Amino acid sequence: MDSRDLGATAADDIWEQAAAVLRDRLEDGAWNTYFHGVRSFGFDGDRLTLGVPSTLVAERMRTAYVPLVSEVLAEVVGHKVDVDLVVDTAERDDELIRPPEPVRVPATDPGATDADRGIWASGKLIPRYTFDQFVIGANNRFAHAAALTVAEAPGRSYNPLFIYGVAGLGKTHLLHAVGHHVKTVYPTKRLRYVSTETFMNEFIDAIRSKTMPVFKRRYRDLDMLLMDDIQFLERTQELQEEFFHTFNQLHGDGGQIVISSDRAPKSMDTLEDRLRSRFEWGLSTDIQPPEFETRLAILRKKAEAEHFDAIRDDVLAFIATNITDNVRELEGALIRVAAFAKLNRASALSAEVAHQVLADLLPPEKPRVITPELILDETARMFGWTIEDLCGKSRRRPLVTARQIGMYVFRELTDYSYPRIAEQFGGRDHTTVMYAVDKIKKQMPERTAIFTQVNDLITRIKLGTSG
Hints:
Layout: H1 8-25, H2 28-35, E1 39-43, E2 47-52, H3 55-64, H4 66-77, E3 82-87, H5 114-118, H6 141-152, E4 161-164, H7 171-185, E5 191-195, H8 196-209, H9 212-220, E6 224-228, H10 237-252, E7 256-261, H11 273-279, E8 283-286, H12 292-306, H13 313-322, H14 327-343, H15 351-357, H16 372-383, H17 387-391, H18 397-413, H19 418-424, H20 430-443, H21 448-463
Parallel strand pairs: 2-3, 4-7, 4-8, 5-6, 6-7
Antiparallel strand pairs: 1-2
Helix pairs in contact: 1-4, 6-7, 12-13, 12-14, 13-15, 16-18, 18-20, 18-21, 19-20
């Protein structure tokens, strides 16, 4: 018997209307992952109960989408409507209730098809994130040495290797460098780089599509797993349970695990003890903010790689002196100065000019607290749109440009990952943000309008200079 209450008919009608609006406002990836198959369970006039396939989906929807759902329901019903989420047990795959069973395919299975092999394919490794391009300093020397050791002899020591530190210091670079090295030295090894956000989304999709065996093979039959931002495992028990079994089988079969996080295992308070203890089986090493010499070396290497010939050493020293905590922001400052030089056809640039270009990056007396809401609000106000426009699905060219600049500024001013930025812009796919950031970065030295808009927006956000 269906467990829905007597308000199901009214609830079905209301949810059908609301779902149509949400389907139009959300990116396909967000809709298919979180909303496809959601059922209405009851409506009492002020509260709509929705059934979702798992506790993981429920927790993610509460965090990222319930406010939007409530807003749309208010439009449909005409007054404020609260949303309750319950796990729809009728829709659960019975396989998920049982303890996970090992599913193995021999590494050299002669009958494996190309499609079979494809499930182990690595997430795209960023070409420039190699060991050769990693600048070594006192702040990261040990982490670099440990990563290189693991890359040269996977599974023999430091397993797992756990690299931690605040955002923007090079953790992701090291994970990609390990992947590049292993692919070169051990081309037959099956490795996969993945962010925890992607792991979670694939897990949710496997629950919905009842393809858990494929999901398990994808991660448990690897020779090496490179997993970024593991701190996001703390969000849900169900995800921790799945990763616990993945870790056990991969580690037990001699597979190498490399993990990054924004904090040490012992500081992950809401992580299960059994997972925390496994993270401490191998080696944990941190990366600290770079000292001046390393910051200057990073800038020199970046300037050389990008052929920023107009940037003199005193300008690099000025940037290294004033941008102290974050490699990402350090390189972003260099890109802005180089873009200014190219736009103005300057053969050389002084430190005084660099000071003017980077004025918004220099700490004000009373720094503004930068929040996602502030960035979205200032972006909308500067370009003459609404936040709903920025987060919506319209592809009008001026709006797309404003949206892409907003995404670029998010990346420069926050430590948000691409998936987290995508959530702020209506639940888009994270690859949309990656494309936007790369596009704006390339356009800044070529188009004066883009350069000016980026700098004006950052100034408005950091200094509160909007009119």
